[in-house]
Design a protein that fits this description.
Shape: globular
Radius of gyration: 22 Å
Order of helices and strands: HHEEHEHEEE
Helix content: 40-55%
Structural class: alpha+beta
Number of helices: 4
Strand content: 25-35%
Largest sheet: 6 strands, mixed
Number of strands: 6
Length: about 120
């Protein structure tokens, strides 16, 4: 192979690789989304809460709430599937929200027995 053909072939291949890398740099797809549950001994007074047994609660929300309450530690679950991510975000946004104060953060509160967890989602850019 002569030098001219080699350089032309290499240039085309490099262009295709770079175009593929740059073309897949879509902001929505590159965001990492996690559902988060932070445990509390009780829900905020006078707040509207949702039971973990509510039929609207399930999947990742139920999983992180149960884990957070059982371990008494913040629990997170990464939402990689686009459909699951959209569904979970919609579920969280539809839950009653407490606006927060000095003791409790602003979030939706999901209860399990006498315990509660603040539930929200985070997105990394």
């Amino acid at each position: 192979m002569n030098r001219r053909k080699f350089l032309a072939g290499s240039g085309c291949a490099t262009s295709l690789v770079l175009a593929g890398c740059l073309g897949n740099n879509d902001d929505d797809d590159s965001r990492v989304t996690r559902v988060v549950a932070r445990p509390y001994d009780t829900a905020p007074p006078e707040s509207e809460t949702t039971s973990v047994e509510d039929p609207e609660i399930g999947g990742p929300i139920e999983s992180v709430v149960v884990e957070a309450i059982e371990t008494n530690n913040t629990a997170t679950q990464r939402l990689d599937d686009e459909e699951e991510r959209e569904e979970t975000i919609n579920q969280i946004e539809e839950l009653p929200r407490y606006e927060g104060d000095d003791e409790f953060e602003s979030a939706a509160y999901v209860t399990r027995n006498d315990d509660a967890a603040a539930v929200f989602y985070e997105q990394d850019d």
